[in-house]
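Quick start: read one record
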Amino acid sequence: MKTINVNDFKITSKIKLREQPSSYPLDASKEDLKGALQFISKKLGKLQNTMYAHDKYAVLVCIQGMDTSGKDSLVREVFKNFNARGVVSHSFKVPTDLELGHDYLWRHYIALPERGKFAIFNRTHYENVLVTRVHPNYILNEKIPSINSIDDVNEAFWDKRFEQINNFEKHIAENGTIIFKFYLNLSKEEQKNRLLRRLNKKEKHWKFSPDDLKERALWDKYQGCYEEAINRTSKPHAPWYNIPANDKATARYIVAKIMYDALSKYTDISEPELDDKVKANLDEYINKLNNE
């Protein structure tokens, strides 16, 4: 199987999204990819246990992508070897009345991971500069005092929102949250194939909505919004990674490899040592238990 350099996927300078790959052959069979993912997923799970004991860092995993890009299955497969106590997944859909009663970042703040744990945002705070930018009328539901009509949702508004998102991520990173942001880059042709599979297979009908086709018609607009969001918010403390997503197994492996390689560089993450007094009396504790 081809060896990958995770830095090949990190966005470190301004990009054109159409020039980023949606396919990345790893010269491996499906079984080889499945085995490689299983291996690295187990190592990630073990590392998370160490982080749980260390209790100083949290990990936020942000996953974005067009409909059918494989977000749900990626979460299921990459994190299946984690201890359930150490990871929680949040899927941010249309805001509820309660959420609309707060600022747009509130529901994301309260879902942030505790120290020692992973949180997965399956669709993220970036929906607030993606879906709402394609459909700016949604902003009116947020009841922002300075926004009284669509005309108020102008470039200055979006500049401020990007600044707020960058500040949000900088704040949590400076306080111990390690941030990964993955854009699952699916080609328009592959999305068509996946939508057709949903329509042609009865057991997948439940996944399809006519709204999927309405949003697909806005593909170019979404691509422009993604490109700007990535370019304006990929920072050293919160980098974006372009993940070729035309093959789901490849995408899952690349995401897992990126996380494991990055987290392995934190040499201060280790299980805490026992207190000296406890360590000095280990034999006594063992004897007590053995002599019960």
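The chain has one domain: 6-290.
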